[in-house]
Amino acid sequence: METILLPQLQQWKLADFLISVRSHYAVILAYCGEFDKAERQMQQLAPYAGGLMPMQKKELSDQQNIIKELRRFGPPPQWKAPPVDVVRRFADKLMLGDSPMPHREIKLPKVGRNDRCPCGSMKKYKHCHGKLD
To answer: Whose CA is closest to 20, among 56, 53, 71, 50?
Structure first.
């Protein structure tokens, strides 16, 4: 990446985008509890920080601070998918029509032929969607 891709991106003035993406990736690693990998990513980006715009330097610095805070306090609790057997049972109930959640029928008000169409066209219902009936 450093020997082939980054020189090309610098030539095309796109290196700052890749640096931004890699620094975001480092933050994601930290959220996943991979602090050493995250810090290694940020260390690999350090030589390129000098050529960044002030706003991008601040973003890089902010992300380094996020990684430090996550290491200090730990990542937030992660969502865990339910076990496969629970998902299968739920899907089976839905397929059999034995839904675990009750269905409510929604009653919409009746639209008269000379009322405005509820689609928002401002036409009378009989000239808009009433033709389909």
So the answer is: 56
